[in-house]
Amino acid sequence: MIVEMRIYHCAPTRLPALLDRFTSTTLGFFEKYGIRQIGFWTTLIGASNHALTYMIEWESLAEREEKWNAFQADAEWIAKRAASEAERPIVERIESHILTPTSFSKLR
Q1: Can you give the pTM of this predicted structure?
Q2: Is residue 44 part of a domain?
Q3: How many Å apart are CA 103 and CA 34, to the nearest integer?
Q4: What pLDDT shows up at residue 48?
């Protein structure tokens, strides 16, 4: 198992719009494509409270490539994402980290 940690750095005041998009739209597409979330977090204390961090569980890099690419190419997803940003952009920058557990990790 590998874990992908994604951090979405939002434009000021746009975190609520991103949270709404995940709740009402994105999670449905994750389910459609079999993308398994571990959890989602907002920043309580840190450099910025305009960020959403989440983690996804993958069996392999091949699974990630197959499922993530299918999700990203979905015409309905593309249209809904664009509609959610019609007023103004939500996300300024995205970080993605592919993590592999150590031998002493509880999560493997």
Answers
A1: 0.93
A2: yes
A3: 27
A4: 86
